[in-house]
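Thread: Newbie trying to understand structure tokens

Hi all, I'm a second-year student working on a class project, and my supervisor (Dr. K.) asked me to get a predicted structure for one chain before our next meeting. I've only ever worked with sequences, so writing a 3D structure as a token string is new to me. If someone could post the tokens and maybe explain what I'm looking at, I'd be very grateful. Here's the chain:
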Amino acid sequence: MKAFHLTECASTMDEARLLIDKGEQTPFYLFADRQSNGRGQYGKSWESYDGNLFLSIVIKGSAVKEPALLSLTVGLAVAEALVKNGLQPNLVWPNDVLIDGAKTAGILIEEHGGAFIAGVGLNLNAPANPTVLEDGRLINSVSFHTKKFEDPKQWAAALTDAIIERLDLEKEAILPHWRGFSAPHPIGEMVK
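---
Reply by user tm_fold:
Sure, no problem. This is what the structure looks like when written as tokens:
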């Protein structure tokens, strides 16, 4: 599959849209070393620390068996990849991946030009320790648990492969596995 590696961009999601508009054949993926204007669900900004993974995977719409469950499918692929690296993630509806109750990854799904863009922001190497952001969210990183540098290029390829492999799954295969990783928001906590 074709891959684009960008040193810096505003958002890999925006770059994916531009490539779709230029006629790039799907599927393909792109990742960046840095983002200046990453975004998450509901237009929230995504903190784009150097050393983390900023990934967008572009998939032809007809290649996705369960479009309504694409966010869950991507979350499941991320969680399973983390398990393969010795971690114990949880998935929180609709798009968060947590380790030890702290956000480690976020997923954003958009449609454009007959394709789906699956965005994954994964905290690989920063912050060094779990950190509280200004809005009170706790964030975590993979390297905090693995005690080694995590290569964004390797993670981009591995996550893309894992996501593509799951696109033909039906909901009967997706939902039980997703629920196995799911964790409820604490009672009384606002879902962010």
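A couple of things are worth pointing out once you decode it. Residues 70-84 form the longest helix (15 residues). The CA atoms of residues 63 and 191 lie 31 Å apart. Feel free to ask follow-ups in this thread.
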